[in-house]
Hints:
Blueprint (H helix, E strand, L loop, with lengths): L24 E9 L5 E15 L14 E6 L2 E5 L5 E3 L17 E5 L5 E5 L12 E3 L1 E3 L3 E6 L1 E4 L3 E8 L3 E4 L3 E8 L3 E4 L3 E9 L3 E4 L3 E5 L4 E3 L1 E4 L3 E5 L4 E3 L5 E3 L3 E4 L4 E4 L5 E2 L3 E3 L2 E6 L13 E4 L27 E3 L21 E3 L7
Parallel strand pairs: 4-6, 5-7, 6-9, 7-10, 8-11, 9-12, 10-12, 11-13, 12-14, 13-15, 14-16, 15-17, 16-18, 17-20, 18-21, 19-22, 20-23, 21-24, 22-25, 23-26, 24-27, 25-28, 28-29, 30-31
Antiparallel strand pairs: 1-2, 2-3
Amino acid sequence: KTYDGGLSAAGTATITSGSLFGSDSISGGTFAFTDKNVGSGNKTVTTSGVTVSDGNSGGNYNVTYANNTTSTITRLNSVTWTGGASGNWFDPANWAGGAVPDLSNVANVVVPTGVNISFNNGSVVSPAQGGTVNVDSIGGAGGMSLVGGNLNVANTLQLTNLDQSGGTLSSTGNVNVDNFNQTGGAMNNTGNFTTTNSFSQTGGTVSAGGNVDITQTSGSVTLGNISTGGTLGVVATTGSITQSAGSSIVTGGTSTLAAPNGNVVLASSGNSFNTSIVSGGNITKVQNAVANAVSTASENLITTSTNSGEDNLTSPLVSSSQGVPGVSSRMSVQSMLAGLNITVSGQGISLPPGVQVNEKTDDAN
């Protein structure tokens, strides 16, 4: 059968040994799987309650039952939440037909609008089972709260809201949510991670093998522990881009930091911006911008690093529309790394009005 969360089985009793005499016959019977979970050719079905019609209420025979041990339960393609506005993922009563998507029993999970599901495998209602949950996709206009346990999504997770206070969410596809709030736990995916409305991270980790794109449409955004093998894009439409204390941001590609109405302050010594940084707003501090980082800003720029106790933004440093394309004349570059060489061709460097290079001048040519 196809997985339905229950033990019932459809069957027909057959004689495996011995024989019936004359017109005697068997009929009926009750059949049940010994467990509810998916399996191919290795599931056991028990038999009971078969009627023997022999004119003597079955008294002419001694009947024993043999299990079928080669039965199959196939994976359910899709199940939809039916449990109301909120509730427990691991309660079968919350899912259509009682087909709780535990273990690897369901491929695709649908979360309707206005629903918030709590995922916590420490709170399991029988016959649901705890343990790692493996699905192909989770989608819908509802939301989830990941409290504890392991949830693996093979393809895409796409929801309106995703809150995480614990557990591990892993995906080999993309994670796309409107609103993301993380206070603990781990978000690990090999694809892209995208938020389109709000992002809050005061704990936990976000790791993506692809790109991380974060949009905060109202107010400031606080980043925490983020690692991306691709690009990092952060947009704070009306506020600033900041970073929680003790966290680290590690990027493998270009970082685009846009805070047109605020500041960019990413001050953790654990940061590693491995390629260029581009900003559409004020970069007031970016810690450990290394390996050929290039920053452009519309206002003031200060970059720092823990390298040798000095501040660092590896050359090429900045450019402006007045001889240094892309940065206004009010830019100030402070505490440049010792050993940073500035070389130009022609007749030297001509700084536009208001541009100043302060402090460290060692080895500057």
